[in-house]
């Protein structure tokens, strides 16, 4: 099969990032057959060519996907021995690097019983954002039950011309990238290969210890939450962010007087001049708010405050495009080097400055990545998708990240956190507080 090259552009910063693995679990009611599952994965080569891709990098650091460069995906199947066995596998796999130049960029694990099975996808973020990977798992189940899926032409952001006309870089983004690129050009411009990346990745995961946990809000609780949000004029996502800010404030007394920095990824598909609804790839940006829960106000008054701050950012012509414009303008070799300056062997001045300016070397923020309600049927042929759990990557600049997904009427909140920055006990208290607030709001 022909191998095509596709430019890795705004997602270039993902390539050498040591903590951008997306973890997603789908539980399926139905009989599991390993040869049929293997065949389903092979079928998807004709549907999502990026799934079987590897990466090549030229001398200037420009990177490309090589579609269909990988012959076979990694698949591990085993009889399920305990209920949350998949979670143990997920935590272990999160600490295992991908070889981007060799591929594959996704690993599948299936734990099964006589009546159901759990599919765990461990995916390099280069393959897609959370929205894309959720649809990929849906397509895996569809192919497994024998449904014919049409080929999806791979669309990617290839230049800033794909952005709306109003999405121009801010003055600060232009000034920073111009200055730091100039500094980089005057230096030695070190390059790092796959071997150096593997070493840096392992070093990062000795410095950070990423834990995973999740919580569930059932259909009845979701119905109550939806009604309460509607009555107070806020979205469920704004309620989650508010609950999370209060939970962090209450359970970290030494931080109670500080504002919590929360990054909120946003799906940009509808705003791009591209038709990328059904293909793999990254089409998300993010905005950031900084807030402190006002204990003199009630929960919903605080939620309205969060809503106001978020609306201000989202209504801005430029704020939602800051991240995409930033990485579109940075020298790709400098992007690589800043991770090595923080966690590997790189003394370049520009790389160290970039790492500091973008908080790569200082986990000081949090994030809430909400995929919303997934718009697909749970019943697929002879199988039924029972639930889904999403762990958004805990990037180097953050210490807690929430991954939220709603399937049918059930919402799952996945917590990815650095145990070196926040203990498992504290994180359990945070998740319990978030759940209590959302259930009783």
From TrEMBL:
The lineage of its organism: Bacteria, Bacillati, Bacillota, Bacilli, Bacillales. Residues 26-324 form the Condensation domain. PANTHER family: ALCOHOL O-ACETYLTRANSFERASE 1-RELATED. InterPro entries: Alcohol_O-acetyltransferase, CAT-like_dom_sf, Condensation_dom. SUPFAM superfamilies: CoA-dependent acyltransferases (SSF52777). It comes from the Bacteria. This is Condensation domain-containing protein. It comes from Paenibacillus puldeungensis. It holds the Pfam family Condensation.
